[in-house]
Amino acid sequence: MICIIKIVIFITTIPIIAGRHFGYSKRDQHIWVKNFKLCSGKLQSPISLSSFKSVALPLPALEVIGYHDFLPNPLYLKNSGHSVVINVNNHLRKELPYIFGGSLDANQEYEIDHLHFHWGAKNNRGSEHILNGIRYPMEMHIVHRNKIYSNLSNASNYKNGLVVLGIFFQLQEEDNESLHSIVSDLMCVQGINRAIKLSSPITLASLLPKNIDIFYTYKGSLTTPPCNEVVTWIIFPTPVPISFTQLNKFRSLSNGKDMLADNFRKLQNIGLRKTYVRRLNPLLIAKYNGTIFNAENLDWFWH
Q: Is 141 a catalytic residue?
């Protein structure tokens, strides 16, 4: 494969504050709060999720619109030094994939902005969230911006600004063909700030787990500085497969000094926050008189 590298300027994982670097080592994460005051807030992410401690509700389905359509070209894969990022640019001024429903307020629609990954140097770690005591080797975040805000930076200033879909990855022997278009281009972005146009188109649906009917949700933050507490998290418990060979391609990347890996934040205190899990069993539906629970009635905190 011939790698045609481009230097591309675009928004990466979060709005970056000029001149302030952050790292993922224990020491680096300890000093995040010194440079980014919001990182010491009470609604920080990631957290440990538990099916036993989450409140089960017959929430509405999460509607994903345009997820089966190819994302608009050109799509660039970039090694930001913190992750691998794919930004979705709406240069054609067409409607981008968006989501609504689920645990989100009525009449609120959230448009795709970008997606990125977190992974470990070893197979027993990598994901940012933990589910029922399990830390998966990789987690993907699909970041969505509330349509009422003009861009990611603007949306990051409002409590209803962002929704992030969290997808776990589980190791298997065989390659996941749906990841081929991303993994095959990783060798071209091994160096920090390298970017390449994806060689083949992708759909968001191909990156989702087979079952998105069940999900966990809570109020949290960006998991990287400046840690704005503006995120409604929606985490799918069903993992997506990835092979050992494919995961090792992510581990071949560089952060400018060392191997780019273990780029996950330590778990944060859940505090008084509630976590919910969407379930549609007959007993729950009967409890709410046979109707789907109105998400606008959600109480996100214990009193």
A: no
Give the global pTM. 0.94
Q: How far apart are CA 43 and CA 228, in angstroms?
A: 9
How many CA atoms does the CB half-sphere of 174 hold within 13 Å?
4
pLDDT in tens, 181-192: 999 999 999 999
Distance CA 36, CA 221 (A): 13
Q: What is the C-alpha end-to-end distance of the chain, expressed in Å? A: 58
Give the whole-angstrom CA distance, residue 302 versus residue 92. 45
Query: CA–CA separation, 39 vs 185, rounded Å?
Result: 33
CA distance 20 to 196: 25
Which residue in 21, 68, 82, 116 is the catalytic one?
82
Query: DSSP code of 70?
Result: B
Q: How far apart are CA 20 and CA 183, in angstroms?
A: 30
Note the pLDDT tens digit of each residue in 5-52: 554 444 334 434 334 579 999 999 999 999 999 999 999 999 999 999
**Number of residues in the chain:** 303
How do beta strands 98-101 and 62-65 pair? antiparallel
Question: What are the DSSP calls for 87-133, one per residue?
Answer: E---TT-PPPPEEEETTSPTT--EEEEEEEEEE-SSTT---SSEETT
